[in-house]
Structures are given as structure tokens and as C-alpha cells.
Amino acid sequence: MDKKAVILLSGGLDSATVLALARSQGYECYALAVSYGQRHVAELAAAQRVADALGAARLQTMHVNLDAVGGSALTDRNIAVPETEAAAGGIPVTYVPARNTLFLSLALGWAEVLGAQDLFIGVNAVDYSGYPDCRPEFIRAFEALAQVATKAGVEGRGFRVHAPLLTMTKADIIREGVRLDVDYALTVSCYQADEQGRACGRCDSCRLRRAGFADAGVADPTPYR
After folding, report:
1. Which of 2, 18, 76, 128 has the fewest C-beta atoms under 10 angstroms from its C-beta?
2. Number of structural domains found in the chain
3. Quick one: which residues bind ATP (predicted)?
């Protein structure tokens, strides 16, 4: 197989679906997980489970200390993860400054070394549009950056940034994953999952996940504590 892609794999529902989609499109998938100081570190073990189950050629875990930057409930233990529904129109406190920019930069560097021209990321602008780095504008801007920031891009071997879930609802994502035989019991989405990966059932991510399964008419396999 000569069609390689780097897939950002958090271990959550969305990124697992993206890995399955990329595989179904004939890509040899190189999965990239990032340990960035997140409080829900159980997602890293989930990423390994998902990569194994979906036949990734390799899982690489890279390390970035975004907890040193702070400013997010996901990296700063002094900021509580909200357990009430986020107000519409604002940027949630669970936004991690520059996270997707850094993640895609790491994926871009690895892709260039692998000889891959395709990057996949599971951002979604429908169910959760509060994050500025989950918008179509961001994806387009990063793809343009990739063409001028790399040796491969300058030499004419450009990159494509795929965000196949961008305009899908959570229910549609789940239906697609079920079609592709994704085992969602392996995934962790909760912002404050415990060491065993059990979900709180109260944070925004848990609410979106639970509602998505309900709307899709699929049994929710999430272990809640």
C-alpha cells in the first residue's frame, strides 16, 4: 500500500470514526496521539486500543506540555470542568489554546518524514462550534500553511488536511462509525474520565456523546461511574 495518511487519534469517538473512514478509503494509517498534560489521560490508553482494533500501521504518542500554558479546564487543575450546559455563543473554558494548531503541526512533520500527503483530524463544527480551531476556516488556513512551511510543499508535493466530520451531527458520526465496525466501547470522550476510563456523565463532552447515541438509535456502550 503506497497511500499513507497521518490520523490524529485522541482515543475519543470522533477520532476513532475518522481512523475507520481513512482506512475504508484505502489509506495506510499512521495514528498520532498527543500527551499534552490533559486531565483525561485515560484517552491515551483508549487511543492504543482503537489503533489496535482498527489496524493502524503504527501508533505514535508525542508529548507537548500544554499544562504549562494553562488557560483551559482540560489542562489546569485549578479550573473546574463545567458540569452545566455551556452558554451558546461563547468559547468554552474547555478550549485549549493552540491545541489543534500544535497537533496538526506535529502530524505535518511526521507526514513529511513518512512521505504521506494526507492528514486527518476529527474536528466537528456542528455539535460543538465553540472552539475556534474546529472551524472550516482553520482547516483551510492550516492546509495553506502546510504548502509553504515544508520542504515537501515547496517542492510541489502538497498536503491535504481532511476533516470528514466537520459538518456531521454526532448521531451521523455514530451511524457512520457503526457502519465501519467501530467499537465505541473502546473509546473515551469524557473531559474528566477516571483512570479506568469511566465517564462522569455530566460534562459537555459526555452530554454530546450520550445524546448522539440516543439520536442515532444506538445503544450507548460508555462506562459511567
Report:
1. 2
2. 1
3. 9-19
CATH of the domain at 61: 3.40.50.620
> What pLDDT, on a 0 to 100 scale, did the predictor assign at position 188?
96
The residues that bridge with 162 in the sheet, in sequence order, are 120
86 annotated to a ligand binding site = no
| Distances 113 to 139, 164, 165 between C-alpha atoms, Å | 21, 24, 26
Q: Are 128 and 168 in contact (CB under 8 A)?
A: no
31, HSE (Cβ side, Cα atoms, 13 Å): 30
- 8 labelled ligand-binding: no
Domain that holds residue 186: 4-216
Residue in 224, 210, 222 with CA at minimum distance from that of residue 185: 222
Question: Dihedral (C-alpha) 195, 196, 197, 203: value to the nearest 10 degrees?
Answer: -60
C-alpha cell at 14: 470522533
Q: Is residue 221 part of a domain?
A: no
What is residue 197's DSSP assignment?
-
Tens-place pLDDT, residues 34-62: 999 999 999 999 999 999 999 999 999 99
Residue 114 located in a structural domain:
yes
In a domain, 222, yes or no: no
Residue found by looking up cell 452545566 in the block? 84
Q: Is 190 part of any known ligand binding site?
A: yes
